[in-house]
Amino acid sequence: MINVALPKGRLGEKVYRMLSGAGYSCREFSPENRKLVFTDRENGVSYFWVKPADSAKYVELGAADVGFAGKDILAENEPDVYELLDLNLGKCRMCVAAKEDYREDTLRPVRVATKFVNVARNYYVKKGRDAEIIKLNGSIELAPILGLSDVIVDIVETGATLKENNLKVFETVFDISTRLIVNRASYKFKYGEIEKMVAKLKEAVK
């Protein structure tokens, strides 16, 4: 039995459809009801819903053998898991954005507002740039508008919100998509079953 952590919401439903198409359907599965666990012993798979931000933690700690998490979550939390496959779902970018007329002052640390503290810190360390990181939980775009920060580091999908607020992308930190992740111990003890699932999903991604 492979225990699979699915992220709640439309992304999780897309992942399930991909798994179902690869031969891992579950008769009792339904995203409409409030049930959290769906098990199909015939196909050797058990699904359970988790918040997207928690998926990697369930996998890392062994509650799930396999899970699905965005590259943003993996980069921010750095869970001790194997990342085996890019599903090419939920595509977007982690970007540095600021007011359209922003000009960097290299004589002082850059002030960065973000939900992704570790991502931002690691990015500016690699650039050899001193940065003051300001942790925010929402409405990140407000920070440069109100002078709280020089720039933001945040996820950008269409860029429409930035444009509407006279902000623009200055740099792309990395591309984001959904990744298949595996618990390290599970990969050792359920290697055959997990590799079979990975191989079928590779074909589905193609």
Poorly predicted sequence stretches spanning 5 or more consecutive residues: none
The helicity comes to 25-40%
Class derived from helix and strand content: alpha/beta
Largest sheet: 6 strands, mixed
- What is the mean pLDDT? 93
Global shape = elongated
Strand order of the largest sheet: 2-3-1-4-11-5
Q: What is the N-to-C succession of helices and strands?
A: EHEEHEHEEEHEHEHEEHH
Strand fraction equals 25-35%
Q: Over all CA atoms, what is the radius of gyration? A: 19 Å
CA(first)-CA(last) distance? 26 Å
Instruction: Give the number of helices.
Output: 8
Give the total of beta strands: 11
Short description:
This protein has helices at residues 10-21, 55-60, 71-77, 117-126, 142-145, 160-164, 184-189, 191-205; strands at 2-7, 37-40, 45-50, 66-70, 82-86, 92-99, 110-114, 131-135, 151-156, 167-176, 178-182. The protein has 206 residues and is α/β, with parallel strands linked by helices.
What does this protein structure show overall?
With 206 residues, the protein is of the alpha/beta class. Helix content is 32%, strand content 32%. The protein has helices spanning 10-21, 55-60, 71-77, 117-126, 142-145, 160-164, 184-189, 191-205; strands at 2-7, 37-40, 45-50, 66-70, 82-86, 92-99, 110-114, 131-135, 151-156, 167-176, 178-182. The chain has a 6-stranded mixed beta sheet. It has a 5-stranded mixed beta sheet with strand order 8-7-9-6-10. Strand 2 (37-40) and strand 3 form a beta hairpin. The model has no long low-confidence stretch (mean pLDDT 93).
